[in-house]
Amino acid sequence: MNNVHKGVNNVSNAKAQKSVLWDWLTTVDHKKIGILYLVAGGFFFALGGLEAVLMRIQLMFPEASFVPAQTFNELLTMHGTTMIFLAAMPLLFGFMNFIVPLQIGARDVAFPFLNSLGFWLFAFGGILLNLSWFFGGAPDAGWTAYVPLSSSEYAGTGIDYYVLGLQISGAGTLIAGINFLVTVINMRAPGMSMMRMPLFTWSSFVASALILFAFPALTIGLLLLMLERLFGGNFFVVELGGNVVIWQHLFWIFGHPEVYILILPAFGIFSEILATFSKKRLFGYSAMVFATLIIGFLGFMVWAHHMFTVGMGPVANAIFAVATMAIAVPTGIKIFNWLFTLWGGRIQFTTANLFALGFIPSFVMGGVTGIMLATSAANYQFHDTYFVVAHFHYVIIGGVVLGLFGGAFYWWPKMFGYKLNEPLGKWFFWLFLFGFHLTFFVQHFVGLMGMPRRVASFLPGQGLDSLNFVSSLGAFLMSIAFILFLVNVVVSVKNKAEADPWDGRTLEWAIPTPVPEYNFAQTPLVRELDPLWYEKQHGNGKLKAAEPLDDIHMPNGSILPVVMSIGLFVASFGLIYHTHVITILGLAITFGAMFVRSIKEDHGYHIHKEDIKKDEEVG
Amino acid sequence: MAHAEEVKHDQTLPPNPETATLEGKNKFLGFWFFLGGETVLFGSLFGTYLGLRNGVADGPTPAELFHLDLVFIMTMLLLTSSLTSVFAMIAMKKGNFKGLMLWMWVTVILGLGFLGFEIYEFVIYVNQYELGFTTSAFSSAFYTLVGTHGAHVTFGILWIITLLIRYRKAGITLTNAPKFYVASLYWHFIDVVWVFIFTVVYLMGIGG
């Protein structure tokens, strides 16, 4: 009996060792998919950063001619699109994928196959979007792609890449969102009630709900734009009864919740870091949970504050202005709870914690300019100036990007098995923070002096020269800092990490590093908020098991997600170049793979308890 | 759940086989969430249609196009198909595999009938009324909304047929019960969307 089991196991091991590439292409392990998200997201982050630097070089001097105006338009469109859809969100997904199942004591996500599909759809959508650089020019209508700027009359094939690339990667995002929702509701370990979930899990959960209700609006917006550009629809053609404002509504019904999809998980990361490095339970846990929920809800109610100057009228403007300002209340609750968590704590100034501490004032500055922008009457002055650019970079870099880097330093040991170098990390932090404020603080003033956003150049002698120069210097500093981070990733490889390097509080620190593919040999029994900390204080420091040691059921890997994504990728080229054969071929690949998936029975396999026991002894 | 196939000869199937396993529970919950997303999807399309329904340019208006008798037949076909899929689910919960298959096939046939009438309707609009997809903003919005619903019906039919053929001899198992259940949920959702289309597009189009 034992031999038979071993034989089966050896077969699966042999398969895994056959090729590393094949293993990563077919994996359905949430931890590996998390790492895939981080790698792909990191690549696009560097790409988006490069685009930003090129723009800042062009804007370093008045009337510079470093890049032509058309290229500048393409750079600014791709910078925004890449950073939002292909960098920030996937990087957060990387942490969510790796950490959320561990924090709730689960063996896996609810739908491992769909998890892989979600990643590959995002990856191929991103590749498709970026291929536009090589075929006929990148999209150039801004990341919001307002019609009629993005209609065929004014924009080339680049927008077709935008429409289809975002459609594909958006489908991947939606799938990931549903997956996290079900995982959190159905897969929690015994005792892990909703009100014992770590804040990162909570905020990922709320962000997933936002994804679920926001992305379909984008899907429809993109569908309408595609039908208009490729099949002659008239949704936005005013002469034939169309209305351009419909695009703006659909885009922002998606687009405003999107900023909360980004910021809420970052808030969650900070909550974890601040509690861990203050050696205190998070202050006002339940208030934090409810603030997260309220922010999530209000995030849907305020989309039209992006449209104050469209001409909706004073009543609509006033309602959306007040609703927008209401978000400051739960956000303020959060800020104070973080401060109270620090209050009286034994604060450790690790790199991860520095990012959390740097976040608080930076983000508050972004929040304050947000209130200024939400004042609809004043908005007419700020609209489409660099003031707006400064505001949203303050919240997105000051919130999301600092959160991503803080999360990277915090969870790196668990994810990759080694600790990043602390002194190098601190250099990185200070350079990045200084560069960030240097770049964007002055942009408030550039904006108030009237410099419009999205323009390729400015005139000399209008008081804009020196501030633009300073802003560009800041961008260079941020780039150097990021290179320092990459150096850190490489040189630290030998700093092997133990399972619980930070003296952590939550479940992910209770399992060995590297994390075994089944996560928990025995599902843990959760007795309190911050379960690991509780056991360290009240028990022997080890979690109690909620079940006897037994065989663990695992899903099989599959290449089908890659095939499905490639099918849609191919079909997109058919649509862009009006070649129906290729479109049909691509769709046939995708639907064929779906058919195979539904016909083929796949029960996965078991890891046997003898092998788990051996693992545990070695680990 | 890995050994679900082994259960098929077991006569003691639980009363709710669709949510008896964790996999089934996940599917069930995940699908409800998916339908939540679909609601926003159709909500966006309805919003677009409502914004554009008066933008007829020089083309035909909704009042000139729509005929209640045709739409009434379509509505009856689809509503009945929702009912028959309920019968199928009742049969499933009773462990009556034959009943499940029979009522699901009836559902498919009624769905095909609906789809046939919808295609017929579109053909008439294009040929007799010269309402193409590119005629006006109204026509684009109309075909997109109703067409997206039609595409959902088509997908649902193909999905259910795949299940019916795949499991024609399997009996009710803990593996396929959630699949049938989720497919029938999808079918109800399509039906509910049609009720809104019937009201917002057709009744409001005729009545003003």
Biggest beta-sheet profile of chain B: none
Number of strands of chain A: 4
Q: Structural class of the helices, strands and pairings of chain A? A: mainly alpha
Q: How many DSSP helices of chain A?
A: 20
Strand order of the largest sheet of chain A: 1-2
The gyration radius over C-alpha positions of chain B equals 20 Å
Portion in strands of chain A: under 5%
Low-confidence blocks of residues of chain A: 1-16
- General form of chain A: globular
- Write down the overall mean pLDDT of chain B: 91
**Helix content estimate of chain B:** over 70%
Largest sheet of chain A: 2 strands, antiparallel
How much of the residues of chain B is beta strand, in percent? under 5%
SSE string of chain B, helices as H and strands as E? HHHHHH
Please, could you describe this protein's structure?
The complex is a heterodimer of chains A (619) and B (208). With 619 residues, chain A is an all-alpha fold. Chain A contains 20 helices and 4 strands. Chain A has helices at residues 2-18, 20-26, 30-58, 69-103, 112-131, 158-186, 199-231, 245-278, 285-298, 314-326, 328-342, 351-374, 376-382, 386-416, 422-448, 465-491, 531-538, 560-576, 580-599, 609-618, and strands spanning 524-525, 544-545, 552-554, 605-607. In chain A, strands 1-2 form a two-stranded antiparallel ribbon. The longest helix of chain A is centred in the N-terminal third of the chain and has 35 residues, at 69-103. Residues 1-16 of chain A have low confidence and may be disordered. The model of chain B is unreliable at 1-10 (pLDDT under 50). Chain B has 6 helices and no strands. Chain B has helices at residues 22-52, 62-65, 68-93, 97-128, 137-166, 176-207. Chain B has 208 residues and is mostly helical. In chain B, α1 packs parallel to α6 (176-207) and α3 (68-93) runs antiparallel to α6 (176-207). Chain B is elongated. Classes of the chains: A mainly alpha (619), B mainly alpha (208). Chain A binds chain B through residues 110-111, 174, 178-179, 181-182, 185-187, 212-217, 219-221, 223-224, 227-228, 231-235, 237, 239-243, 246, 249-250, 253, 553, 595, 598-599, 601, 603-604, 606, and chain B through 1-5, 22, 25-26, 29-30, 33-34, 36-38, 40-41, 44-45, 47-48, 51-52, 54-57, 133-141, 144, 162-163, 166, 175.
